[in-house]
Structure to design on (115 residues):
C-alpha cells in the first residue's frame, strides 16, 4: 500500500499562483510515475501532469507553459507549481502514484480560482 497526502490547495485570484505538494509513504517501488489529476464539478477526472522517477514529464495541453511538475525522490514527494491560474483551473486536484501496475490516489485538495 502507498499512502498519498496532498497539501497546498486554496483560493486564489485569476493570474495568481499556487503550489501543491504530495508526499508518498508506505510500500514505494521504483521505478514509478507520480502525477496530478483534477476533477471539476460535473466533469470527468483528467490528467494534469506526470513525472517519472527518472524525470520524464508529461503535461495536458491546457496547462503547458503555466504548470510545472517536479519531484524529490529522496522525500518521495511530487510538486505542482501552478502559475497564471485561470477560473477554468478550478477543481479538486488528486495526486497519483503508479508502480507495478498498481494505482494509488490521494484524498484530493480543492483549488478555486476566482475571476
Amino acid at each position: 500500500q502507498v499512502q498519498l497526502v496532498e497539501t497546498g490547495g486554496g483560493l486564489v485570484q485569476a493570474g495568481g499562483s499556487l503550489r501543491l505538494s504530495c508526499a508518498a509513504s508506505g510500500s514505494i517501488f521504483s521505478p514509478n510515475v507520480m502525477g496530478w489529476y483534477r476533477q471539476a464539478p460535473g466533469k470527468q477526472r483528467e490528467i494534469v501532469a506526470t513525472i517519472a522517477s527518472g524525470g520524464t514529464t508529461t503535461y495536458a495541453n491546457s496547462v503547458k507553459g503555466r504548470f510545472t511538475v517536479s519531484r524529490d525522490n529522496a522525500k518521495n514527494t511530487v510538486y505542482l507549481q501552478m502559475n497564471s491560474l485561470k477560473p477554468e483551473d478550478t477543481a479538486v486536484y488528486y495526486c497519483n502514484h503508479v508502480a507495478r501496475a498498481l494505482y494509488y490516489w490521494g484524498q484530493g485538495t480543492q483549488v478555486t480560482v476566482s475571476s
Summary: The chain has no helices and eleven strands. The two ends are 40 Å apart (CA to CA).
